[in-house]
Write a structure and sequence with these properties.
single chain; 334 residues; alpha/beta; Rossmann fold; 2 domains; six-stranded mixed sheet; 11 strands; globular; binds coenzyme A
Length: 334
């Protein structure tokens, strides 16, 4: 399988669903090029937010077709008032005033997220021009976690040596507790299943089976115990998910090392889902893999929300946006 064929497999799956994804950053040329490619490849229906005339001119000057793409300027949309009202009703108990709701609804990330909440779109991809916090905050406030006792986390798909690896949480939870780490593992398992793969989850640490000591090791051990308990419940037991920890990255990925450090482990040596103990390890780890290892990177995508909202890196290319839109389509599957 080549790198291209991995993402093309995702495109092929996405095509079956005919989902509508909102792209709030219509002012960005990469987003417009991605929209053109997504339309050509029939990956999703699109709504682009921004200056309608400017987007039309951009498409026309390149000979691109806008058929099937809906363009909306939040400032002149007849829906603005009802979205502001929806936001006010959702957030008034948090102290949001009607006037503040009116201003926030004009913000493209809020407007796009409110479109999802009201059923006008299935998912959103933003972040080419916004920080992670500005992209994901509306989703955390409006779309909310799907499991009420579980937080939202994030995942990167890294395609290395022609194989996909799923890395979590490299972008949202700064220093998760043991319970939060176990939840991140469970959400990751569900994401991997949605992408059509079998989760083999390694709970990563600087220790393998007690070789190292410290608070961080204790946390990963506790998280492993909690996640294993959850995986033996009726909700998960027939889903073919394996999980083990605490494991060092070499024991998780290399069978020769695994046989020495974690003999008998169902996961060691063949993990495809890597759960990092905190955001520092995760964020540094995925960037090393990308910059030194030459891995193709998709994400971060949020997991655990009631509907998918995904964040782009500000250095993203049009092709990165196409890939993340296709992944977002797969995440809409219940
Ligand atoms: C995700 C993040 C932006 C949220 O920060 P924030 O906007 O300051 O969040 P707040 O604490 O004000 O919470 C805002 C809302 O989101 C909710 N929330 C925050 N984190 C959440 C999580 N992990 N899961 C579910 N809900 C969450 C809060 O409960 C709150 O909801 P409420 O207002 O309805 O009570 C923050 O965790 C963060 O900055 N993470 C690191 C991001 C980053 O720099 N990544 C590296 C680059 S990729």
């Amino acid at each position: 399988m080549s790198e291209t064929s991995y993402i093309e497999g995702i495109y092929a799956k996405a095509r079956k669903y005919n989902k509508t994804i909102v792209l709030p950053e219509g002012e960005d040329e990469r987003v417009l090029e991605a929209a053109h490619l997504i339309r050509e490849r029939k990956i999703a229906e699109l709504i682009i937010l921004g200056d309608v005339k400017a987007i039309q001119t951009h498409f026309e000057s390149r000979g691109w077709n806008l058929e099937g793409i809906t363009l909306i300027n939040p400032a002149t949309s007849p829906k603005l008032g009802s979205y502001a009202e929806l936001l006010y009703n959702l957030r008034k108990e948090k102290g949001l005033t009607q006037e503040e709701a009116g201003k926030l609804a004009l913000n493209a990330n809020y407007f796009g997220t409110l479109m999802i909440k009201s059923g006008a779109a299935d998912g959103m991809v933003s972040g080419a021009n916004h920080s992670t916090a500005d992209t994901v905050r509306p989703a955390l406030q409006i779309i909310k976690s799907a499991h009420k006792d579980r937080g939202v986390s994030s995942m990167f798909i890294m395609v290395c040596n022609n194989k996909p690896y799923y890395l979590s949480d490299c972008a949202i939870n700064i220093n998760p507790t043991a319970k939060e780490l176990a939840d991140i593992a469970l959400e990751s398992a569900e994401s991997v299943l949605k992408f059509g793969d079998t989760p083999r989850i390694a709970m990563l640490s600087y220790s393998t089976y007690g070789s190292g000591k410290g608070e961080g090791v204790d946390k990963v051990k506790e998280a492993t115990k909690l996640a294993k308990e959850a995986l033996s419940s009726d909700e998960y037991k027939d889903k073919n998910i394996t999980l083990d920890g605490e494991l060092q990255a070499d024991a998780a990925l290399d069978m020769t090392v695994a046989k020495k450090k974690a003999p008998g482990s169902e996961v060691a040596g063949q993990a495809n889902t890597l759960i990092f103990p905190n955001i520092e390890a995760g964020n540094i780890g995925y960037k090393l893999l990308q910059r030194l290892g030459g891995a193709e990177s998709y994400g971060p995508m949020l997991q655990g929300l009631n509907a998918p909202v995904n964040d782009l890196s500000r250095g993203c290319s049009a092709e990165d946006i196409v890939g993340l839109v296709a992944i977002t389509v797969l995440q809409t599957i219940k």
